[in-house]
Amino acid sequence: MGKVKIKRKSTLIDMTAMSDVTVLLLTFFMLTSTFLQKEPVTVLTPSSVSEQKVPTANLASVLVSPEGKVFISIAGDADAELKDTWGTEALRKTILDEAVTLYNKQHPSNQVQLSAQDREAFSKINMFGVPFQVLHQFLAMSQTEQDKFISDMTQKGVGIPVNDNKDMEHLNEFQIWMRAIYNSGNDNLQKAMKKGEGIAVKADKDTPYDVVQDVLDNLQTLKMNRFSIMTALKTEQD
């Protein structure tokens, strides 16, 4: 009796449906993800058990590097298409104008003059940190040159000057920027700052304590008594 031949089944698998699902998932994650903004220096924050997330809109972020250099990032409303909202780029231009005006009033013999191109360049920058006298030179650079300049922590012209100033008639440069942010005209940002959700301070665990203390004291001197301290979530090993 002859052997019965078993009909071989094709091993070919139609992957069309799998590919469609993969593309849909990829598209979903791309549209719903929040991309990390570029920062001039890597900061390793201290650990804590707090799980509260820092907002991504209507926020002034203050970063203090391990070398004690201070930088600021500004974010406006998430949806600038709605009525009475501020887009991030428009907000940055307004804050720049306000800050330069405040600085020039306090330094009439050494005023800063910025062009329309400078204002446009500033609106594209996520995080900045140079003295006012270096601002025009910095904004005239290409993005690559800006990144290279601001990431060099040995540069004297890197970092917003800050000290323990308590004289509200003669603000230091960090205080000028924070005052300009509060006076920007963006009601949503101002309300967030009053609630303690509009200011976040991020410092490296090795940052000199006196610099961090100056930043916090400056905020309190400006009556900005409510702010967040950014930390990393503590793990079991910690």
How would you explain this protein's 3D organization?
- The protein is an alpha/beta fold and 238 residues long.
- The protein is built from eight helices and seven strands.
- The chain has helices at residues 16-32, 88-106, 116-123, 132-139, 143-150, 173-182, 187-195, 209-221, and strands spanning 47-48, 59-64, 70-75, 127-128, 199-203, 228-229, 232-233.
- A five-stranded mixed β-sheet has the order 4-3-2-5-6.
- Helix 2 (88-106) packs across helix 3 and helix 2 crosses helix 6.
- The model has no long low-confidence stretch (mean pLDDT 83).
- One of its GO terms (biological process) is protein transport.
- It comes from Duncaniella freteri.
- It is found in: Cell membrane.
- This is Biopolymer transporter ExbD.
Ordered list of secondary-structure elements with their pairings:
Blueprint: H1 16-32, E1 47-48, E2 59-64, E3 70-75, H2 88-106, H3 116-123, E4 127-128, H4 132-139, H5 143-150, H6 173-182, H7 187-195, E5 199-203, H8 209-221, E6 228-229, E7 232-233
Parallel strand pairs: 1-7, 2-5, 5-6
Antiparallel strand pairs: 2-3, 3-4
Helix pairs in contact: 2-3, 2-6
